[in-house]
Automatic annotation (TrEMBL):
Keyword Iron attributed: no
Gene Ontology CC terms: MIS12/MIND type complex; nucleus
Name this protein carries in UniProt: Uncharacterized protein
Top-level taxon of the source organism: Eukaryota
Coiled-coil zones: 160-187
Stored InterPro entries: PMF1/Nnf1
GO biological process: cell division; chromosome segregation
PANTHER family, per database record: POLYAMINE-MODULATED FACTOR 1
Subcellular location per the Swiss-Prot or TrEMBL entry: Chromosome, Centromere, Kinetochore; Nucleus
Length: 226
């Protein structure tokens, strides 16, 4: 018994590899690959020979060619491993088909929007946003570098907020330490005054000490004369 064509179109493929070969990547998937490659290159460019030489100064001095070769092999291995992981994720999550479907939905929406605009122009009406053409999707005009920076902004904002919180905590701790230091200085000053006052009470007045010193000196002189 033959299977209707409509059912055949909705049936799942028997071989994922064949499906991957036959499915053509749409603009969003191609843009995703561009962003992925740009991000990968940016990441691996951080592993430069200069930084490797700083990490292994003795090897860089004794055998720089070996260090340079090891660095190239390491970068190539990491690049290939990340690309394989990227492809595995795309296959497991069926990213190509989902992005193609998103492209199709947006294209249909743009066609309807354009048709509505043209019908409105035919009736002599104007768009509410006062623009002269239907809105276009801007994702094709965004470069991979711009996409990476746009994603980095949120991460940097979160990091900046975290740093502001840590700075506020440090400033609060500094204020507490400053208050404790001021209190300790006041206590030390009070203790010094108390010690000085107690010492003044224990020692005789200065006048009596002078008289005792004079009498001692006079008595000593009289003893010499005699």
């Amino acid at each position: 018994m033959s299977v209707p064509a409509e059912v055949q179109l909705n049936m799942p493929p028997t071989d994922p590899a064949d499906t991957e070969m036959t499915v053509e990547e749409g603009p969003r998937m191609r843009k995703l690959r561009e962003v992925f490659e740009a991000a990968l290159n940016t990441c691996l460019n951080g592993c430069s020979y200069a930084k490797m030489a700083q990490a292994f100064p003795r090897l860089a001095r004794d055998n720089p060619d070996a260090l340079r070769s090891a660095r190239e092999q390491l970068v190539a291995f990491i690049r290939e491993s990340i690309r394989e992981e990227f492809e595995d994720i795309n296959m497991d999550k069926n990213v190509v088909a989902k992005l193609n479907e998103l492209d199709r939905i947006i294209a249909l929406a743009q066609q309807r929007q354009k048709a509505e605009y043209e019908r409105g122009q035919g009736r002599g009406s104007k768009r509410t946003d006062n623009s002269s053409a239907p809105a276009e999707c801007m994702h094709f005009r965004v470069s991979p570098a711009q996409a990476i920076r746009a994603y980095s902004v949120y991460a940097k904002r979160r990091e900046l907020s975290k740093l502001h919180t840590e700075l506020a905590e440090i400033q609060s701790a500094n204020h507490a330490l400053q208050s404790r230091l001021t209190q300790s200085r006041a206590e030390v000053s009070t203790l010094q005054n108390t010690i000085q006052s107690s010492a003044d009470k224990l020692l005789p007045p200065r006048g009596i000490v002078d008289v005792i010193e004079i009498n001692t000196a006079v008595g000593g002189s009289e003893m010499e004369w005699t």
